[in-house]
Amino acid sequence: MLDPTDLDAHRAEGAFTGLNKALTAMTPEDVIEQIKMSGLAGRGGAGFPTGLKLQFTRAATGMPKYVVCNFDESEPGTFKDRVLMQGDPFRTIEGVILSAYAVGATEGFIFIRGEYPEAAAVVQEAIDTLYDAGLLGKDIMGSGFDFDLSIRRGAGAYICGEETALFEAIEGKQGFPRLKPPFPTTHGVFGRPTAISNVETLALMPDIVRNGGEWLKQWGGGKSVGIKLFCLSGHVKQPGVVEVPYGTTVRDLVERFGGGGFDGAPQAILMGGAAGGFLHPDNFDTPLTNEALNPLGAPIGSGVVMVFNQNVDLGAVLKTLARFFVHESCGKCVPCRVGTVQIAKLLDRITGGDGAPDDLARLESLGQMMRKSCLCGLGMSAPNAMLSTLAHFRPMYDRLIAGGGA
Amino acid sequence: MITLTIDGNSIQAAPGTTVMEAALAHGIDIPRLCYHPELSISGNCRLCMVEVEGWLNPTISCSLECQEGMVVRTQSAQLTAIRREILGLLLSDHPLNCLVCDKAGSCILQKYAYEVGLAGTPYPVEVARPLHQDDNPFFIRDHQFCIMCSRCVRVCDEVVGAHAIDIAGRGFHNHIATPFDGPMIDSSCVFCGSCVQVCPTAALLPASRKGLGREWELDRIKTICGYCGVGCEIEFAVKDGEILYARGTPEGPVNGEFLCTKGRYGWDFAESPDRLTQPLIRRDLAYALGLTDTPWALPETSVLEVEKPNIEDSFIPVDWDTALDVTATKLAETVQTYGPDAVMGLASARCTNEENYLFQKLMRLGIGTNNVDHCARL
């Protein structure tokens, strides 16, 4: 293991050779072309093609332009970005500089969640080191390219991981999501064109630029190209962050990389975090691809793989997730502000033994409405976990309603 | 111009027009709670969702710009289901006491609940904001009825420029608050009541109407505000000849829906017993003219020591013709005896521009003097 902020050691291992290549031998358009060719898609959960995002931001009119690194990592069960940043901050920062070069940005921000003080200290030290080494600031690597990077801290709100709420937070306002369109590529932070990407996405850019766009395509395929960090937690022998190619099966991931596999007979796996869904054991052999998992209501999302064994009361887990969204809803739009509360109330009623079969239909129609009509991704995904259990764990509900609760 | 189709109607719209604006301009009503034509788009009520052909999901029409060839549907089974769900959620956080609510009949939430046939909510009821604030003479803030549409916040910030209120807190228990929830009077509020004007429910209610009458019992009388020369249009809500409250109307050519604190709340003079409702002539002058048999006499007690002097001791009421005759005669006498520069005219800021123009013309041409000035210069 290298010292996370020992720049010389990291450079000896190849850090900033991608940036050097870009600044000396590539135009910004070349960089965008390589990213597009690689098939890189956002690793924060939404999975938007990164190359297109860079292209749109470059094409947008309006100066200055910004790049933002979304290190708000607040999806419950997600800790990959923290591990990445605390272990190797330079890789992600190199990605930030590359995307700034690609879109023509002169300033960037790393938005770090409030609960990550250690990571913030490491990143700050890395930024200071890079300024001293001429890799940030004026005339980076003698190329004439100027770029300033600084940290902005969150204050503990889940919603601030949503990109437009994150912009509001950077601007010093309350973290309410904005209406889209307009999108960040034209109207981002301070109303300027902004390329915002997740830590893991940015961390893949140096290797793509250094090795060419084809490099990432050696793994996975279709809409799930490359390698992905997964956060193994819950009832596995050894939790942790694992990087595997897309297409590995869920069972493989747990059994081969979970330090000996499942801890107790598994009941369900929460994929994608609180905003994701529960995978039934019947589906554990599904490959880790968006194409295979999305139809099952258990998306890859930010890479959460949280295992629950048979000793867990799944109804209680669902209630915890529901209460999480009640607490984290910003309250701007009606479906999320009141809908999250009603999901929690109905789940309370069902698990408390006062549920009626009608309540399940009510949950279903409420959840489907929220998916279609909430203002931002938080609200749209808030009912996901509940809906996935209605679809795949129906006997649990039938048991609760027939048997008068847990 | 852009051509699009809304509910089967081919509609022309200028670039930049939203689907909501285009629809409303052509008489197509789209349900809406947080939208207000004078305010920025918030998009929080989600009631105005429409379907666009070729789009996967419905989208809100208040922020959707018209695009060439767009085919929009504002009514469908899916949209009705979404609107019913949203209204059902709102009603789970809103007391259903329409039977005793002053806003019944003009409450927009009630209107849409009626339209989709919702008698109540299918959800467990919890009112998030029981706060009741009656801390100023002008309006009552009853947060239990608040649906957090943020119209009041936006009108205060964008139209009035006071920004006295904003959203405090997060999620279900957020609420509209003054800084640190202090009394209204300690905020930057100018008590113009624009927030009350745009509130779709009974969350903001004129204090003067509380419990005194329901919307359908009220007569509407339009008038022009007499407080200044701007000439704002005011609509008084009147029951049994008594004013219950004042409001602006969208048709008001000068002010639209917005009024200042005087126009909206300063109408109690209308029914004041002290209000002068006909011309008065000084008693000594009236006696000299033969209009009364009783001459003026020096009161035994100084008027300065009487709490409420009897106005008829010193004045007698006359009709307008008499008053104007006396005034014209006296003015003519003065001009003939002492010359036109013995007269000076002082105009009022309460008059309109046109009235002030006519007044200076009367002085310059009628009287023949340039001695004309205006109270705003004093």
Molecular structure report:
The complex is a heterodimer of chains A (406) and B (378). Chain A has 3 domains: 7-218, NADH-ubiquinone oxidoreductase 51kDa subunit (Rossmann fold), CATH 3.40.50.11540; 227-309, Ubiquitin-like (UB roll) (Roll); 319-403, de novo design (two linked rop proteins) (Up-down Bundle). Chain A is 45% helix and 14% strand. The longest helix of chain A has 18 residues, at 334-351. In chain A, β2, α7 and β3 form a beta-alpha-beta unit. The termini of chain A are far apart. Chain A has helices at residues 7-12, 17-25, 28-38, 50-59, 80-87, 89-103, 117-132, 163-170, 199-211, 250-257, 290-293, 314-328, 334-351, 357-373, 377-381, 384-392, 394-403; strands at residues 66-71, 107-112, 148-153, 194-198, 220-221, 224-225, 227-234, 240-245, 266-271, 277-279, 304-309. By secondary structure, chain A is of the alpha/beta class. In chain A, strands 8-7-11-9-10 form a 5-stranded mixed β-sheet, with helices on both faces. A 4-stranded parallel β-sheet of chain A has the order 3-2-1-4, with helices on both faces. Chain A is globular, with a radius of gyration of 22 Å. The model of chain A has no long low-confidence stretch (mean pLDDT 96). By secondary structure, chain B is α+β, with helices and mostly antiparallel strands. Among the domains of chain B are: 2-75, Ubiquitin-like (UB roll) (Roll), CATH 3.10.20; 218-273, N-terminal domain of TfIIb (Single Sheet), CATH 2.20.25; 280-377, Rossmann fold (3-Layer(aba) Sandwich), CATH 3.40.50. Chain B is built from 10 helices and 17 strands. In chain B, α2 packs across α3. The longest helix of chain B has 19 residues, at 320-338. In chain B, 31% of the residues are buried. The model of chain B has no long low-confidence stretch (mean pLDDT 95). The A-B interface holds A 157, 159, 174, 179, 181, 326-335, 337-342, 345-346, 349, 362, 365-366, 369, 372-375 and B 41-47, 49, 57-58, 60, 63, 81-82, 85-86, 89-90, 92-93, 122-124, 126, 128, 147-148, 167, 169-174.
